[in-house]
Amino acid sequence: MMYWARWLNKKGQIALAALFAIVLIGGIGILVYFSSQNILEQKQVQEQNEDGILKGAVLKDAQIVLESPKPNSEISSPLIVTGKARGSWFFEASFPLILVDWDGKIIAESVARAQESDWMTSDYAPFAGTLTFTKPDYGKNGALILKKDNPSELPKNDNALEIPITFK
What we know:
With 168 residues, this protein is an alpha+beta fold. Helices cover 22% and strands 36% of the residues. The protein has one helix at residues 2-38; strands at residues 42-44, 58-60, 64-68, 74-75, 79-86, 94-101, 106-114, 124-131, 141-147, 160-167. Strand 2 and strand 3 form a beta hairpin.
C-alpha cells in the first residue's frame, strides 16, 4: 500500500505541475490576445500611402490622421491643427481638440471642423481647427489631444489621439 501512495504522490505532483504550467501558459496567451485587441495603433507614417496620407503624419487605428502639428513640434498660439478623419470620428461635423500642459492641466479647448460637407463617410474627410492659448509659466512640454466625439458617452465608443508637443 505504501508503494502505491508514493507512486501516486509523485505522479500527482507531476500532474499538478503540468496542470499549473498549462493554466499559466493559457492565461498568458489569453492576456496577450485580449491586450492586442485593445491596444490602439498609433504610428507615424514614414511615406505617403495609398490613402494619400502624408509623410510624417500620425495615424491612429486608421480612423484619424494628424498632419499638423507633428509629434514633438514646438508650437505657439494660435495653433492650427489639420488632418483627416473617418466620418465616425465626427459628430455633427466636429470633434474636440484639447491642449494640456506637462501635468495634464487643460490650457485650451476648441473643436476641429470637417472641411467638406460630405463628412458622414467611411472615407477620410479633411478637418481643421485652431487652439488659442497662453504659454504655461512653467514646463515646456505638453500634449495635443484629438478626441473622438462620443455623444453616446459609452466607454466602448471613446477614442483619442494624443501627441507630445513642446511650447515655444
